[in-house]
Protein: diguanylate cyclase
Amino acid sequence: MGHLGRFSGKIIRSIGFRLTLFLVIGLALYLVMAALSIQALVQQTDGLKELSGLHYERALTAAELSRDAEVIAAQTFESILSTNRSVSQEGAIDQDLMELYHYVRKQLTATNEEEQGYLDEIDLWQKPFFASLEKLAQRMEEERLLMGQEQALLNQLQSAAQERPPGTAPLKAQLISQQVISTLLIALKSERNGQLHRLQRSAESSLEQLVDYPKQLAKLQPLVSRTFELRRPVILSHRATLASARKSRLYSQRLTTSGYNYFQSLKKTAHHAAKAYEASAQQAVIVVGVFSIVFLSSILAMVIFIRRQLVERLNHLSDVMSAHVAGSPRKIPTNGDDEISVIGQAFEVFVDARNTAEQRLNQAQEETEQANQQLRKLNRQLLVLSETDPLTEVANRRYFDQKLQDYWQMCMNLEQPLALIMCDIDHFKTYNDRFGHQAGDLCLKKVASALDKTVHRLSDTLLGRYGGEEFILLQANTSQEQIYELAETMRQAVAKMQLKHPDSEQGIITLSLGIAVLLPDGKNSVDQLIRIADDMLYKAKDQGRNCTLQTVPSEDIKLRPSD
Ligand SMILES: Nc1nc2c(ncn2[C@@H]2O[C@H](COP(=O)(O)OP(=O)(O)OP(=O)(O)O)[C@@H](O)[C@H]2O)c(=O)[nH]1
Structure:
């Protein structure tokens, strides 16, 4: 759980995650804004749609008004053209239609000057239209009355034509009477004044032939007069009715034309409103679409840019830095001149500086190591020098004294005998006096070298210069015989060099040697060992020099084999 928590915490703290989170939030906000915009757009387009619908509704009302006017006119004319050409009791105009027309008209109100112009034109024509209809109705009423009288006259003429003439009347009179009635019947159907005038003269001419038949004359005379007196006003009335009808028709056409024009205008407005609505909706959709594409493309480009230019490069740089810290260097990305490149360049400078410092440190460590080695070498040399006699290059007195204690303690621990040989060059003072001090030094070196060559292969052995012309030798775990042999070998080695010394008994440089051998046990001491050797040397000098003396061998002292 702890590891998982640290892992998730690392992800949350990473720049990539936080940038992605910001982008997701931005995208969500955009979607909310887009949804709100679309909602506003829908509301706006609904408003435009409603406005367009309102225009259409008003156009339909205008069309209805125009149609109502048409219907009113049509019904009026239909009543005129009915079979008996009479007018109903209620009049020629349908009152319900009139009311409907005015109801429709009230619903129409102008919203601008152009519409007001159309309404004014409708109002201009509707008054004369209805007035003409009223006038037409009056004409129809007058015509109806005249036609009633004419019908009565026609009935009289028809019954006169069917009457059997009196038996006394001559055939001529009967024929003339028939001719007059036929003329009158034709006159009652005549529509033209000229024809009527000719028929009247014909009828009057026929009447003149009935002068000899006063009964027929008296009967036909009033019918002739009445027929022509009645027919003329009927023709006039009929023409007046037709004139009124034409006028009504004209006004009807103008009124319906005005209504139709208004309808066309409103229809055009509605069409424009619909077009505007469509264009607005289309434009809004295009704007939202283009904006969305641009916005989403920008977001996508931003995401790609952040991924490639920031997150991936930062991760790479972070990995490279971690690798350097972990001690496995990788190539540091330094291309470009932006901030990340600057960080890479700065890190490269830091790494170079660290590498340089590391190289210098290594170099310094190497130099220090070399210096230490040199120092150790010098120390060793110094140690050797401090332990060595500078003239003879064998152990000096200080070192010899120090090692004497160690040898003593070692032999005591191991219960081994420790032998000591003390050597002294014979008559060295006179050698110095004869050959000089420098020659004396050279002699000392040669003697020391000869002694060293004699003993240097032996183990547990130490040769030293005890002081002046005295040399001393330690040999652990040796017997009286062995040490004596060694002392003799040393003496003979010096003698073999045949160093001229005219003032000595043999004429050459010789040695006197005193030997002491003790088994260290706590009761004896180093000083005792030295004193015994020194005593033996003194005795050797005293016995004539160039010889080796030792104490009588002790039975206690036995050689113990070396380990
Ligand atoms: N050239 C030289 N002479 C030294 C050195 N150390 C001591 N001597 C000399 O050694 C001489 C020792 O003389 P002595 O002690 O009198 O003994 P000796 O002359 O050797 O006589 P015996 O010991 O009795 O045989 C002295 O003259 C010292 O000056 C040295 O380092 N170099």
